[in-house]
Design brief:
Layout (H helix, E strand, L loop, with lengths): L1 E6 L8 H14 L3 E7 L20 H12 L2 E5 H6 L5 H6 L11 E4 L1 H10 L2 E5 L1
Parallel strand pairs: 1-2, 1-5, 2-3, 3-4
Length: 129
């Protein structure tokens, strides 16, 4: 079965991201495919390059990066939600005249059209948070 997921809440607002990661690990272990994880609304905070949680908390960003690398999962971040919250990819930071970008490695900026394409290809679409 093919899954597409959407994360709407920040890693500090709810456990949705951690629960989604656990779901992905279980689904992949059962032979299912994760086509895309789309970070929307405050979910874009999972993709912050410079997020540094306290030493006694795991890094959600690092967990997503590891999961994506191990299982070739597309980590797509909504461009509109990201721009509204100040998260810029390298191209957009340059276009806006900013000195640096905030998008963590392994994540990419995407539009709602790419989310729609993933949901059409998926057998199931699950929204978290």
């Amino acid at each position: 079965m093919k899954f597409a997921l959407q994360i709407n809440s920040s890693p500090y607002q709810s456990n949705a991201g951690r629960t989604a990661c656990a779901f992905i690990k279980a689904a992949v272990a059962e032979g299912h495919q994760i086509l895309q994880v789309f970070f929307y609304h405050d979910g874009i905070y999972h993709a912050l390059r410079y997020a540094t949680p306290p030493d006694d908390e795991p890094s959600q960003t690092l967990q997503w990066q590891t999961l994506a690398k191990e299982h070739q999962i597309d980590l797509a971040v909504c461009i509109s939600a990201a721009q509204r919250r100040g998260l810029l990819c390298a191209d957009e930071a340059w276009r806006q005249g900013k000195q640096d970008h905030d998008l963590a490695d392994g994540f990419r900026i995407a539009g709602l059209g790419q989310l729609l394409a993933a949901t059409l290809e998926a057998d199931r679409f699950i929204v978290w948070g």
